[in-house]
Amino acid sequence: MSDETVVFKVGMTCEGCANACKRILGKMSGVSAVNTDVAAKTVTVSSDGTTSPQAMLDALKVWSAASGKPVELAA
What we know:
Blueprint: E1 4-10, H1 15-26, E2 31-37, E3 42-47, H2 53-67, E4 71-73
Antiparallel strand pairs: 1-3, 1-4, 2-3
């Protein structure tokens, strides 16, 4: 499988938010890298395609519901 890159818009306000996103996504099957940019409010995920972007979004939405931070798949 080829590497896939998925970008999410996440309402991160600090490194704690960024680290939570890294921790959540880093546990998912096939994820090779998670890069966060708090200033741009983006999370970029590199994976082998094993885990779908929707599954990643669903995992982030669990954190979103607990933290009150918005999460969406970037267009």
